[in-house]
Amino acid sequence: MKRVAIFCGSREGRDPIYMEKAKQLGEVLAQHNIELVYGGAVVGCMGAVAEGVLENDGKAIGVIPEN
Fold first, then answer.
1. Digits of tens for pLDDT over the chain (67 positions)?
2. Domains of the chain, with CATH numbers?
3. How many CB atoms lie within 10 A of CB 21?
4. Distance CA 47, CA 59 (A)
């Protein structure tokens, strides 16, 4: 697998575990050289996944739709 698409909330959620696990997921992706394609947000769970990837020298591709 070269890439994975993840689209999740741009909010943190009620329990801090969501942010923690989202960031851990990003770390695991980077460690396995799997690129992230995500919703492009820098906040919430979506941002945490991207942060986990980028802080571990992975690659993240943000997709933000336009009208």
1. 999 999 888 788 889 999 999 999 999 999 999 999 998 888 999 999 999 999 999 999 999 878 7
2. 3-62 (3.40.50.450)
3. 15
4. 13
